[in-house]
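User: Could you walk me through two proteins back to back? I'd like the raw sequence and the C-alpha cells for each, with a short line separating them so I can tell where one ends and the next begins.

Assistant: Of course. Protein one, sequence then structure:
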Amino acid sequence: MRFIGSGRTRIVALFAAILLATGIGVAVAANTSSKTASNAMSAGRGIDEFGLTKAFFKGHKTEFTYTKGFFCDRHIASAASSKCEAGTKWKHAPSKQHDPLYITVPLGFTVPAMNMECPSGLVCVDHPGTIDLSRLEPALKPLYPTLTDAQLTAALKNFATPGHQHYITDRNHGKPEWWDVRVVGVTDKSVYRQLNQHKSAAYLLKQVKAGKTTGVIPTNLFLFFGVK
C-alpha cells in the first residue's frame, strides 16, 4: 500500500487469524477495536484521501488510485463506528454504475504483513477502520468454542477491518467509479497461496464454487477508485 499527499496510516487491532495464532481471545479484540479509528468523516462516509494500492486482475497485478473515502449504506444496520458491515447486501448504492471488488481474508492462519496489500494492523487508504462482523457470528463460532454466542457477537460488532487482498473482474476502462465490496474468507493456507499465484477473480470464484473458501459475503461497503 502506498500513500500520497495527505494520506495517513492508522494502527488497528489484528483480525481473527492473528488472534488465533497468538492465543489472544476475541474479547480482547472487542476492547481494542472500540478504540480503533473508523476512518470516517461522518457515519458511513470515509475521509477523502489520495493514494494507491495494488490488486489482481486476469493473472496480473494492477493499481488502484483512490480519491474518495469509503461509502457504507446507512439503510443497513451496523454497530461499527464506521457504520460498515459484512453479511448483508446494501439496499442503496452511491451510484447506478458500479462493479464488484472481491477481497480475500485469511482465517485461522497468519500472513506476513509484506505479503498483503492491505495487511492486518494497517488501514488502507480510503478504507474503513472498523466493520461490524456480527452477522457472521454463526460461521465464526467454531473458531472460538470458549466464547458464548453473546460474547462473540459483542466482540464482532465493532471489529478492526481485517487484512485482505483485492480482486477485480474488469477495469471499467480506467475510469474511476464506486466498487461493491464482497468478502471471501479463506481458511486453507495452501488455497490462499494458490489464489495469490493465479491473481484472478475468475479463479477465485471457481474456488468459491468448489467449496474451498467461504461463500461470497455481501457488504454495505463501497470503495471509490480508478484502475490503471
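----
Protein two, same layout:
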Amino acid sequence: MSEWTIGIIGGSGLYAIDELEEAQWIAVDTPWGAPSDELLVGRIAGVKFVFLPRHGRGHRLCPTSINARANIDTLKRAGCTDIIAVSAIGSLREELAPGRFVIVDQFIDRTFARESSFFGPGMVAHVSMAHPVCPRLSALALAAGRAAGADMADGATYLAMEGPQFSTRAESEMYRLWGCDVIGMTAMPEAKLAREAELPYALVGMVTDYDCWRDGEDAVEVSAVIAQLMANAETARRLVVELAKSLPATREPSPIDTTLDTALITAPAARDPTALVKLDAICRRVLAR
C-alpha cells in the first residue's frame, strides 16, 4: 500500500489546474528527449498531482510532434503511481453528443509516424494491451465526473488517427463500421507507453464534435472545437478535484504495477547496457532485483 501520486495529462483545452495548492513548475530531464513541457506539481485535497500539458503551454505541439516517450518517462521519474489522460475527442455515435464526457476502454491504433515503445534492439519486451486501461482508475474517474456534474458515458472504443488533418467522410464512415465510438489524435502511443512503464492509465474524453459522418453536420473546424473545449474545461477541472476527494486513503497495489514481470524477453547476458541506461526509470523495479 502507498500514497497516490496522480499524473494528469491535459489535452486540448486543459492546460493548467488552478486548484493545485503549493503548485510549482519543475523541469525533469529524460533520456528520450524533451517532454511537452515542465510539470506542474501540487496537491488537491491532500493528494499529490503532477500535471503535464500534452501540447505544451500555448498549444505548441501538433499530435505527431508530441514526444510521448519523454512525457511518460518524466511522469514516472516524478513518482506518479497512476495516469489520467484528459483528451478532446470527436464522436462517431449519435448518442455521444458534443459536451458529453466519455470513459474510453478500448483503442484501435491507426498512428504511423510516432515512436511507440521504450523497448527495442538490446532490450526487448512485449506487454499485453488486451485491456489497455485500468478498470479501477477508470471507475474512479467515472464517479468523479458524475460528482462534478458531467454527462458521463461509460465505455467506448477510441480510434487513434495520425492527424493533424481531420478525417475524410469515407474514413469517418469506415471507423463507424469498425465499431469505433470516438476518434482522437493523441491517446496512442500514450496508453501503450504507460503500460510499458507500469503506470495504470485511464482516459477521459471530452466530446467536441461529430467528426464528419453525420448528414447535415458541418465539417469539423477548429473554431467550433475550441468553443466546445472551453465549455468542457471547467467541468474537467471539477472532475479532477472530485477525484482527489474520492480517492481511498491508501493506494492498494494494482496488477499493472508489475506488468514487466512477464514482459521482458531478452536474456540478462544479452541486454545492451546502453539501452538499460535509457530504461533506468521505466525498468528500475525489475532490473534492481
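Residues 73 and 285 are 14 Å apart (CA to CA).

Let me know if you want the two compared in more detail.
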